[in-house]
Amino acid sequence: MEKIENISTTIPEDLKKCIAFHGHQCPGLVYGYLVARQAIKILTLKRSRDEEVVAVCENDSCAVDPFQVLLGTTAGKGNLIIKDYGKNAYTILNRASKTAYRFSRKQHYTYKGKDKEEFARLDAAISEGSETTRERWHHKHLKSEDLLSRPFDEVFSTEKVEFSMPPYAPLARSEACSTCGEMTMSTKMVCADNGNLLCIPCSKKISTDQRKSAAE
Fold this sequence. Notes:
By secondary structure, the protein is of the alpha+beta class. It has seven helices and nine strands. Helix content is 38%, strand content 17%.
């Protein structure tokens, strides 16, 4: 198997941290990195230890990971919100200043780097499905380096937006599901007709079984 070097020595140290966390270097990761860096700059952010910063991502792509590394927004803390619309758009909120900016990618990507012929060759190979593993990674690296060389405003539009600050991550005691017995966050449970509390999977299974019985 070919050895693929994912981390170049010429890229920024904070991007290397993102690559190490994500597992490889790719254009999607760079998009998120660019937004995170711009958000830090214009919102005067420090890495969120708790929920001081919130990221609302309109996709679930590689771009999400730099927000976890650089902004400290994570699903576990409740300050990383995924709205999977498939859009290259991200809203970053600063709770302290009650300020939010939405960043959205402007247009279809076109390579503008110095290796245009090589990029076109790799593009064609990938379109045909004939590329090698090394060629696929080289293509990603060329695109990543090209994106890093561009002014931010060439890649993303920036808009200050009105945004209702999301509530802090809720805390609630756990209760045992009356069917499976597994401990479940009480606010996520469903109250059955007989008053028993059920976890969502058990409530769905009971509903399905009831519909089948009614149809028989």
